[in-house]
Design a protein that fits this description.
Blueprint (H helix, E strand, L loop, with lengths): L5 H21 L9 E8 L5 E8 L3 H13 L1 H11 L7 E6 L2 H31 L2
Parallel strand pairs: 2-3
Antiparallel strand pairs: 1-2
Helix pairs in contact: 1-3
């Protein structure tokens, strides 16, 4: 994969910000979870296509429903992008599920649990040392 140019990086950022605003505030589809985040956006250099990496915090059913809702609203989202961003072409959007945020939250919980277990073991071992 070739390195993104400064222009392409800027376009990715603008599209990501605009997509997040559209999903958060303008799309009224009840299938789309309120816990939906736009993690990253990759716009092709020719501006014809775009991959939007979406993260949904919640159940598998919420993820599937959100993806269906976003895919059905793709035409509307594209029109709004064309209106709000001044691009030569408005890219066709492909939504891709990315669960890196949820993975990070789950890992943080597991780390906290292990730390709590270690702390509990330390307390018990100190109590048994003092009893001698």
């Amino acid at each position: 994969m070739r390195k993104n140019s400064i222009k392409n990086t800027r376009i990715n950022g603008e599209v990501q910000k605009e997509l997040a605003n559209l999903i958060r505030g303008e799309i009224k589809d009840p299938r789309i979870s309120p816990w939906t985040s736009v993690v990253a956006v990759e716009v092709a250099p020719d501006l014809k296509s775009c991959k939007a990496y979406i993260s949904v915090l919640g159940s598998e059913e919420a993820r599937i429903d959100t993806l269906k809702g976003l895919n059905s609203a793709e035409g509307y989202i594209r029109r709004q992008l064309a209106r709000n961003l001044n691009l030569r072409n408005t890219p066709e959007i492909t939504f891709v599920m990315d669960q890196s945020i949820e993975y990070g939250v789950n890992m943080a919980k597991k780390i906290d649990e292990v730390i709590a277990q270690d702390a509990a073991k330390d307390v018990h071992s100190h109590e048994s040392d003092e009893g001698m």
